[in-house]
Design brief:
This protein is of the alpha+beta class. It has one domain (about 25-175): FAS1 domain, CATH 2.30.180. Helices cover about 40% and strands about 25% of the residues. It is built from eight helices and nine strands. The protein has helices at about 1-20, 40-45, 50-60, 60-65, 80, 90, 100-105, 115-125; strands at about 25-30, 30-35, 70-75, 110, 130-135, 140-145, 150-155, 160-170, 170-175. It has a seven-stranded mixed β-sheet with strand order 4-3-9-8-7-6-5. Strands 1-2 form a two-stranded antiparallel ribbon. A hairpin with a 5-residue loop joins strand 7 (about 150-155) and strand 8 (about 160-170). The model is unreliable at about 10-20 (pLDDT under 50). It holds the Pfam family Fasciclin. It comes from Glaciimonas soli. This is Fasciclin domain-containing protein. Keywords: Signal.
Length: about 180
C-alpha cells in the first residue's frame, strides 16, 4: 500500500510538472503561474503576494480582476507593502478606507496587455519614456535602464522596479514590482 501511495504521489508531481511545462509557466512566490488561469486564480497561490490578495479582497475587486480584461497588473510584493509607513496597510484594509484602497489598487492596473516587449516598444516610441493611463484615472511613467530593466514612476515620483516580467494570464499579464505605487 505504501508503494502505491508513493507511485501515486510521484505520478501527480510529474503530471503537475508536465502541465506547468506545457503552459510555459513563470514562477512567482514559489508557485507556477498558469496562463490558462485568470489574474486572481494565479495571485492567490503566490506566497509573495498575500498582502496584495488581502487588499484586493478588502477592496471588493476580486470579480473585476477575474473579468475578461485584458488587464496589466503591476503587482507589489509583500516586501513592497512592508516599505510603507508602519500601520498603513492595516489602516487601508479597514472598511471605512475602502475607497482609498480601491484607488491605490486600481492605480496598479493598466487596461490592455503590456508585457516587456509592449512596454519597451512604447518607451522607444516616446523617446525614452512612456506614459500609460491607469484604471483609477492616474498616469504611470515607464523608463528603461539597461537592456532588461524597465522601471515605473508614479505621479508622486516614487519608483518601482519590475522584478518579474510577462506573467501571462488568461485575462492579461502581471508584472511584479518592488514598491507600492501611489496616486496623487
Amino acid at each position: 500500500m505504501r508503494k502505491l501511495s508513493y507511485v501515486l504521489t510521484l505520478s501527480a508531481a510529474l503530471l503537475a510538472a508536465n502541465i506547468a511545462y506545457a503552459e510555459n509557466t513563470v514562477m512567482v512566490g514559489g508557485q507556477s503561474m498558469y496562463p490558462s488561469k485568470d489574474i486572481i486564480d494565479n495571485a492567490v497561490n503566490s506566497a509573495d503576494h498575500t498582502t496584495l490578495v488581502a487588499a484586493v479582497k478588502a477592496a471588493g475587486l476580486v470579480q473585476t480582476l477575474k473579468g475578461k480584461g485584458p488587464f496589466t497588473v503591476f503587482a507589489p510584493t509583500n516586501a513592497a507593502f512592508s516599505k510603507l509607513p508602519a500601520g498603513t496597510v492595516e489602516t487601508l484594509l479597514k472598511p471605512e478606507n475602502k475607497a482609498t484602497l480601491t484607488k491605490i489598487l486600481t492605480y496598479h492596473v493598466v487596461p490592455g496587455r503590456y508585457d516587456f516587449a509592449a512596454l519597451e516598444t512604447a518607451i522607444r516610441k516616446d523617446n525614452g519614456k512612456a506614459e500609460l493611463p491607469t484604471a483609477s484615472g492616474g498616469m504611470l511613467t515607464f523608463s528603461q535602464n539597461g537592456l532588461r530593466n524597465i522601471y515605473v514612476t508614479d505621479d508622486g515620483g516614487h519608483v518601482a522596479n519590475i522584478s518579474t516580467y510577462d506573467v501571462f494570464q488568461s485575462n492579461g499579464v502581471i508584472n511584479v514590482i518592488d514598491t507600492v505605487l501611489l496616486p496623487k
